[in-house]
Design a protein that fits this description.
Blueprint: H1 10-38, E1 41-47, E2 56-65, E3 80-94, E4 103-111, E5 119-124, E6 134-136, E7 138-139, H2 146-149, E8 154-162, E9 170-182
Antiparallel strand pairs: 1-2, 1-9, 2-8, 3-6, 3-9, 4-5, 4-8, 5-7
Length: about 180
């Protein structure tokens, strides 16, 4: 004898679909906030050997986040807000042994790809001469970066002053950690 089927009224089905849709939408916002808080933005910048000690120079580059590779338009931040910087780290990558202590101060700015809406997000003005090849920067998390993280790329401008002459260009990797919350 086949099992009995229980018929669910049509209203319950519609209600179930609505509840499931609401849960799915809110889960997407939560998922986006978790992903944006997990994958940092990274970019490579060059400190040029021709820079003179004591003078300020700029290094420009575009930063991206690994999670942007999995979206159609490179943007996965439509459902998040209150995005703030949580960490900033600079390390030498070419040569690996480059002493960041050759730099006396550094400031990091984020902007839209065209350079508009630029804001300073990290800095370090007291770099010690023997810091080594890695440096944690002081962050300024007073800014909300919501509109910037909705861009496919973020323009990074790093200003720096050398303490000493350097013999070769130095490649630096900047890593910026973020925190984000689901949009309500």
């Amino acid at each position: 004898m086949p099992p009995k089927r229980i018929c669910v009224p049509m209203i319950n089905k519609k209600l179930s679909v609505i509840i499931l849709s609401v849960l799915l939408i809110s889960a997407c916002a939560t998922t986006q906030s978790i992903i944006k808080s997990t994958f940092p933005y990274t970019t490579d910048l060059t400190v040029v050997a021709s820079a003179q000690p004591g003078k300020e120079y700029d290094a420009l580059s575009m930063a991206t986040s690994f999670d942007q590779n999995f979206t159609k338009d490179g943007n996965n931040a439509y459902m998040i807000n209150t995005v703030q910087l949580t960490s900033a780290k600079l390390r030498s990558i070419n040569p690996l042994s480059f002493n960041i202590g050759n730099i006396s101060e550094v400031k990091v700015y984020m902007a839209k790809p065209d350079g508009s809406d630029e804001i300073m997000v990290a800095s370090r003005t007291d770099i010690t001469p023997e810091v080594g090849n890695s440096l944690v920067l002081d962050i300024d998390n007073s800014h909300h970066l919501d509109t910037l993280v909705r861009e496919k790329h973020i323009r990074i401008r790093m200003t720096y002053k050398l303490r000493n002459n350097i013999g070769t260009d130095a490649g630096m990797r900047l890593t910026l950690g973020l925190s984000a919350h689901p949009d309500k």
